[in-house]
Design goal:
The protein is of the alpha+beta class and 276 residues long. It has one domain. 38% of the residues lie in helices and 18% in strands. It contains eight helices and eight strands; from the N terminus they run H-H-H-H-E-E-E-E-H-E-E-H-E-E-H-H. Strands 3, 4, 5, 6, 7 and 8 form a six-stranded mixed beta sheet that branches. A two-stranded antiparallel sheet has the order 1-2. Helix 1 runs antiparallel to helix 3. The longest helix has 20 residues. The radius of gyration is 19 Å and the shape is globular. The relative contact order is 0.16.
């Protein structure tokens, strides 16, 4: 199946150059729009991309969550918005491809409910009685119980971002997505994000048990409060080998979500309502 997600450029080249869309055949249009946005984005980066994510992150780090992540100092709104649009085009192209149409028909009716907004995504959450809010750069959203609920959020990146800022941004967006899902399904939750780091994309996952959610919501975070986040390696989408590995990773995640047994509130609620 993943072979169908190989774009035209990687059937002829190992590296997607900045001008690759100029020569892209009209009849092979899948992912052409993504590579146009990707080339524009890369043109704004410095010559050297940052180090790989596993080398950048520490095994554990104490972070301070922003009360509103879009108001943190040093943000570049237009640069982040361009990242959100790029990730939207990537996920939209994947999910609307023939490969995932077949998967969706086999596993669930969720396929017809997916959409991909890049605005109006502010989500609020409470820690120890204090209100916080986060706003991702985009999301994969489903309708569940009359609400628009994200099942995967997009996380942007800024040059010079420290590991603390990187983790705080990811966690704040995860907690906003978590609050939206737990409001309709009071069970343990898995939260997924898709992010950019230089020329690479990565997938992150957080697992949040109900006991921890209830305690943090009412009493706040203790000094030794631990949230377990896992990050994939970064996949440089200008390289054919990395592209293929990224498609494998995203395909596995989408299959997991589309089967309907994921620990994600919006999906569980949708599936249970369909079986009643």
């Amino acid at each position: 199946d993943v072979e169908r997600l190989i774009p035209w450029v990687f059937k002829h080249h190992d590296v997607a150059k900045a001008n690759c869309t100029r020569f892209w055949p009209k009849e092979k249009s899948d992912f052409k729009d993504f590579f146009y946005h990707f080339s524009c984005y890369r043109a704004e980066l410095d010559e050297l991309d940052p180090v790989q994510i596993p080398l950048f992150l520490k095994p554990d780090e104490k972070v301070t969550l922003p009360r509103q992540n879009w108001k943190t100092p040093g943000r570049a709104p237009q640069f982040l918005q361009s990242q959100g649009m790029m990730l939207k085009v990537l996920m939209q192209t994947m999910i609307l491809s023939k490969t995932f149409r077949i998967i969706a028909l086999n596993f669930s009716k969720l396929f017809s409910l997916f959409y991909f907004p890049v605005s109006g995504l502010k989500k609020r959450y409470v820690i120890g009685g204090k209100r916080y809010a986060s706003r991702p750069e985009g999301a994969v959203v489903v309708e569940s119980q009359g609400r628009s609920v994200p099942i995967m959020s997009d996380v942007g990146w800024l040059e010079g971002q420290t590991s603390h800022d990187f983790l705080a941004e990811n966690l704040s967006i995860m907690l906003g997505q978590l609050a939206a899902n737990v409001s309709i399904d009071h069970q343990d939750q898995g939260v997924f994000t898709l992010g950019l780091y230089g020329s690479c994309i990565y997938i992150s996952r957080g697992l949040f048990p109900t006991s921890q959610m209830a305690k943090v919501h009412s009493k706040g975070c203790s000094e030794n409060e631990v949230f377990h986040l896992r990050f994939s390696r970064g996949y440089n989408l200008s390289l054919s080998k990395d592209w293929l590995e990224a498609m494998h990773a995203l395909s596995r995640l989408l299959r997991y979500l589309m089967r309907g047994n994921a620990k994600v509130g919006a999906i569980r609620t949708h599936m249970s309502s369909n079986t009643e």
